[in-house]
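Here we describe the complex-level prediction in full. Unlike the single-chain runs in Section 2.1, the four entities below were treated as one system.
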Amino acid sequence: MANITVRFYSKCLNRHTSFQMYLPYGVNEEGNEYQKRGMKTLFLLHGYTGDAGNWVPEYLSDKYNFAVVIPNGENSFWLDGISTGHKFCTFLGEELVEFVRKTFNLALRKEDTCIMGLSMGGFGALHTAFRYPEVFGKLAALSSALIMHEVAGMKEGQGNDVANYEYYRECFGEPSKLLESDNNPETLVHRLKTEGKEIPRIYMSCGTEDFLIENNRAMHRFLESEGVEHVYEEEPGIHNMDFWSRYVLKFIPELFG
Amino acid sequence: MANITVRFYSKCLNRHTSFQMYLPYGVNEEGNEYQKRGMKTLFLLHGYTGDAGNWVPEYLSDKYNFAVVIPNGENSFWLDGISTGHKFCTFLGEELVEFVRKTFNLALRKEDTCIMGLSMGGFGALHTAFRYPEVFGKLAALSSALIMHEVAGMKEGQGNDVANYEYYRECFGEPSKLLESDNNPETLVHRLKTEGKEIPRIYMSCGTEDFLIENNRAMHRFLESEGVEHVYEEEPGIHNMDFWSRYVLKFIPELFG
Amino acid sequence: MANITVRFYSKCLNRHTSFQMYLPYGVNEEGNEYQKRGMKTLFLLHGYTGDAGNWVPEYLSDKYNFAVVIPNGENSFWLDGISTGHKFCTFLGEELVEFVRKTFNLALRKEDTCIMGLSMGGFGALHTAFRYPEVFGKLAALSSALIMHEVAGMKEGQGNDVANYEYYRECFGEPSKLLESDNNPETLVHRLKTEGKEIPRIYMSCGTEDFLIENNRAMHRFLESEGVEHVYEEEPGIHNMDFWSRYVLKFIPELFG
Amino acid sequence: MANITVRFYSKCLNRHTSFQMYLPYGVNEEGNEYQKRGMKTLFLLHGYTGDAGNWVPEYLSDKYNFAVVIPNGENSFWLDGISTGHKFCTFLGEELVEFVRKTFNLALRKEDTCIMGLSMGGFGALHTAFRYPEVFGKLAALSSALIMHEVAGMKEGQGNDVANYEYYRECFGEPSKLLESDNNPETLVHRLKTEGKEIPRIYMSCGTEDFLIENNRAMHRFLESEGVEHVYEEEPGIHNMDFWSRYVLKFIPELFG
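The structure predicted for the assembly as a whole is:
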């Protein structure tokens, strides 16, 4: 096993950033079939106020033989913001993937590459996988902050307890144009269907007492109405690590089993 | 000596951040007069595209017995941006100072507390010391990116090779209001004079071939016209580490000798 | 909260070493009574093959308001080895304690300072607290590798599956002299009693299926026979993190409640 | 570019260890011929009391396109010590090389793989390259601590200002058997010649005021007497970073130019 920290200069962020990695026992071992075709890899996305830290137990990586790549998304909603140097979506789906492929020979095929996130990171998992379906074969989105409809209705000077209007505009772009933009995961689903592209396999869950439960139910209904195959689960629970730990145990075997 | 990395949750940034520290030989040693009154401390600010890394040779810290605190300012110009979670000026001048005081018993008196930066960090050193003159007794500003007059003239859709309009608006606020705002170091100098407050001791330098030389000369003339005592030096040189290394050697003895 | 990594030059080890720290919410906050007298601190010792990593949940530090200091003891049995640069006991009980006191203003009084370890670190917690009873007021020793009697019987060329004779001699000194030496916790207990010194408060536990159960029972009987007050608990369990996690939950409130 | 820290479990050391890496601009870039055959790599060895830190300027790595791998050798003399878990030579020449090859696809061919060290690390560079000539094509040994003849004469209870007898015995094995053992670089040279194996290209230097100058001259004479091709340079200088920095500039182009 190995715990790895990488600091490198990101063109998308216009500055240095760092990410964490976990490599399981057996990575690239002789006779390991993944050595030849690129090890299985999980990109793991933190939530709002979070940073890069591994919330997947290492024994699961060892058991299913997958590497974990854990970037810092700051409070970006894993989107390309409007300011120079805030291209977190391109950073994640292009620059970081390319870096990991070339440096570690990982994540070479979408069948081997998954993305999982919680809260803001759940939004990021859905959005990034829909934006880069040729990179990510499967996604798991836990208690996802699918707040694009609320943000779309915001006016200058508004905001909420968490953040002000300028913050949301920086992350999502002009609110009035958000729903039609590429920052809306629904827009990306429509496009994938129109273009006849394969949609990544989707695993979603949310606690029934989570303040984001209606946002998640809305996405579930949207996917149903669009005929997009997906797993959607609810269970008693709130927006906390207890819930996410349980769904890590449930969804990791689906992603890598 | 010690090299220290601290990760902590910042209220100003709404997320975890980290900073670096260097402690010299002798910090808090018995019989060290600084043990009683708070060790001498240098806050060290990186430039645009940079991150927390020590560019003051450790032997200088050992010789003059000062700690170095090295925050990550991202590309914020060390200002409070307009979005929630972008309060880098308050982070630096209040939250980080308080954390360092309480955790390490450092930077307790302004006579012992200095701030130095290069390029964007030179702007930050001037601005932060003028904004928190009760914290920082001296400042050194190298090749400072004193671009407030250029930014003030920007219109929506404009920008330059380095960054777009939205980036500058995020950092500096509405350009049309910048020159009168607290984000303009000149405004802060006027206020300090009006309020009869002591202005920190100022050391500035810029290379004569630096693309920022005219901005630095303008600040020099401004300080002269305002009757603000300061050291200003020019020397052949461009915007690079060679120049900054020379001025570290010149200015550190002024700050801590 | 803060996660801290410190690299510093150790005179006892003749080289640089690093340690980890966790500071809880509230460390040194205004109105915190511990600010005046030195924050409560736990020194946390890893086992054989381990290294510095926090196995006490952070919420417990936050709840009981104690800092955690986590050194790297390598495979030293937390003893002063016979070779130059292997003084791990002096490093822990003197050099590291002094560094933490002076740099962080922590661990100033033995009432506030505890030591806990597992396996080799359980041996280390007992030994170090008995060696420095003026530093550590309480200790918790989990599944302790109290193997001094086995080591004392070793002859040159012997050893076991884990390590060779030379390794044990390096850590414990000449086996034939071990039982009378300061490397034997029993010797230290005798001395503390003879000198009329206060013995730290002792919490011990071991799983009934642990391969070290008889060694722990022997220490329990020894302490009983010496009339040394202590808590000793057994419970079904083996030598693994499941058992240690349960006893962290049980013993932390005893140490800091 | 990237700065990488790796923590992994070492079988040779019986515990976790960490190492540092620097990757230059251009590592594995498209059209980079080294992508196909394994990037050029420098293993960089610190001296006594040192630890893993990069003393090769990053711009040199960028210019000559080589990665730097920087292990922690503690005070082991980069030899397999007599105690279990002290196999630093095997760790370096086998376990770490294998890890770096499989994880980063580096150091695949000896033509691309060099080793450089200073002081104790200079001894290590010579010894390790002679021990693993199929791994390392070139070596640079600066101010090398070639003290095997002094150590060979030590008796129990002896030692010197730096370290005691037990320390030297732990590192080098029984002093009386040292000169014939594999821990003596001279023994390894004899064997390579006997077996008709290719000897790595050798670059040595030492300052004329260095306290190790006679030891280095002795190795120079030994290599001459054995007819082993090598570069040996002397220059005014002592045992310090000024000297080593100058020879990094001289020898890196020889290794990677």
